[in-house]
Specification:
The structure is a homodimer of 257-residue chains. Chain A contains eleven helices and six strands. By secondary structure, chain A is of the alpha/beta class. In chain A, strands 3-2-4-1-5-6 form a six-stranded parallel beta sheet, sandwiched between helices.
Amino acid sequence: MSRVIAIANQKGGVGKTTTAINLGAGLAVAEQRTLIVDMDPQGNATSGLGFDKTTVPSSVYDVLIDGTPLQDSILTRVHFPFLDLLPSSQDLVGAEVELVDRPHRELGLRDALGPVRDQYRYVLVDCPPSLGLLTLNTLAAADTVLIPIQCEFYALEGLSQLLNTIRLVQHSLNPRLQVEGVLRTMFDSRLNLSRQVAEEAKEYFGSRVFRSVIPRNVRLAEAPSFGKPIVLYDILSSGAQSYLALAQEIIGQVAAG
Amino acid sequence: MSRVIAIANQKGGVGKTTTAINLGAGLAVAEQRTLIVDMDPQGNATSGLGFDKTTVPSSVYDVLIDGTPLQDSILTRVHFPFLDLLPSSQDLVGAEVELVDRPHRELGLRDALGPVRDQYRYVLVDCPPSLGLLTLNTLAAADTVLIPIQCEFYALEGLSQLLNTIRLVQHSLNPRLQVEGVLRTMFDSRLNLSRQVAEEAKEYFGSRVFRSVIPRNVRLAEAPSFGKPIVLYDILSSGAQSYLALAQEIIGQVAAG
Ligand SMILES: Nc1ncnc2c1ncn2[C@@H]1O[C@H](COP(=O)(O)OP(=O)(O)OP(=O)(O)O)[C@@H](O)[C@H]1O
Ligand SMILES: Nc1ncnc2c1ncn2[C@@H]1O[C@H](COP(=O)(O)OP(=O)(O)OP(=O)(O)O)[C@@H](O)[C@H]1O
Ligand SMILES: [Mg+2]
Ligand SMILES: [Mg+2]
């Protein structure tokens, strides 16, 4: 049984990549076979894990555009035996235009993941900050969507567009798509604004809000400059502890069905 | 003489909207007739200035897709006599797909701005976090690009793609396009990471880096929840002072030619 989780929010800078890397590492540490897919042309998940997207032999671009088998493009045992990565590349910036005129343009990732899904317990897909074809491909391929929201004013504004897009995908491309949950990130308990938005998110989403909250913690912003997930950079940090707790919460949810 | 400035960076959450609103207000306070254009489907510049993008009578969508004259869609005297806004709307999320098959799909904004340019000293265009058709429209219409970069690890990574896109636009759509400057945002002098990235940006861009640096200041994140630019919300804050300094720097540059 494997679960494909899209990490999506078109609002920029809310912690999508940081969540993909560190939830991925948290699941791998708990010995859950995990694949991270970097669907963002910026390639931050690829570089944040220590790889150079300009020199990777093969990437998600080759899989989507040339039909290279996903199996042949994966980097295996990334920092942990149970963590693999399908990297991004420079070319991905052109992928949305190249996909526009193709038949089934939204289904490339779903079809590519088919043959490998059962090798992984979790597949986490890091999305770019937009609702274009790369994000649509991801939503079409996913079982659930994890929505990081920053505890700041603009956080709740774009959510109705995102939920709308999810509904459209459920009606057409992927009827089984569910919302995994809303993850509050960069929470700073000293700030009124932060506490206020965190509270509003809870009112708005109720039980679909993760109990785990990711605090603002500079160690999370430092770790990618060393190419490491937070658990390898500073396991004692509040950032590391919160992502380990999130991993446990997700593993527990799946067990509970 | 008017100057159209694109505020662009496909990296999300780097302070594009915060810069559009507060540089716009800073220029208006200095009695420079200024127009802010909200080209982001999220509509954060529209709501950050106190408007509801679901109820605006007309928006940049109508201008781009239906050819409504820009003059008829502008909200005038927004907080200041010298500040106008061309708002975003919910529909804008579909604009990129709707523009794809149109002739001159990248030139809608340039053509729409033509008749009104000379009424403004500055036109600031807030871009979404992507290099799609809305950003291309903006680069085709702009005289210069102002690039906000967050003083964090991922900041420098996407810049080569952005500079590449600017070069492509210079060769095809807009030969006179220049880089106005790189603006360092969310700078926190207490953090090594912040000082390091700010330093690297200076080495990378040299004289094209603004002297003004925007500090991380929670008042900047609070102001939009009151629908106000920082100079009206908290003029004494470091955030307000830094954006006023930036406005002066830009006015001074133009004067110096
Ligand atoms: N909890 C946190 N505390 C402190 N800094 C954080 C935290 N989470 C993320 N960051 C930093 O904030 C910035 C934005 O985070 P990140 O790049 O993960 O967001 P994103 O949603 O993936 O952005 P984009 O929309 O560009 O893809 C990065 O510099 C990251 O290191
Ligand atoms: N200097 C600053 N200090 C503190 N908070 C800031 C600062 N500048 C921006 N912010 C906050 O950081 C978040 C991201 O800023 P903003 O929305 O302006 O970025 P953006 O580049 O426009 O994002 P997007 O890529 O989604 O369009 C917002 O919540 C904003 O209020
Ligand atoms: Mg990201
Ligand atoms: Mg913005």
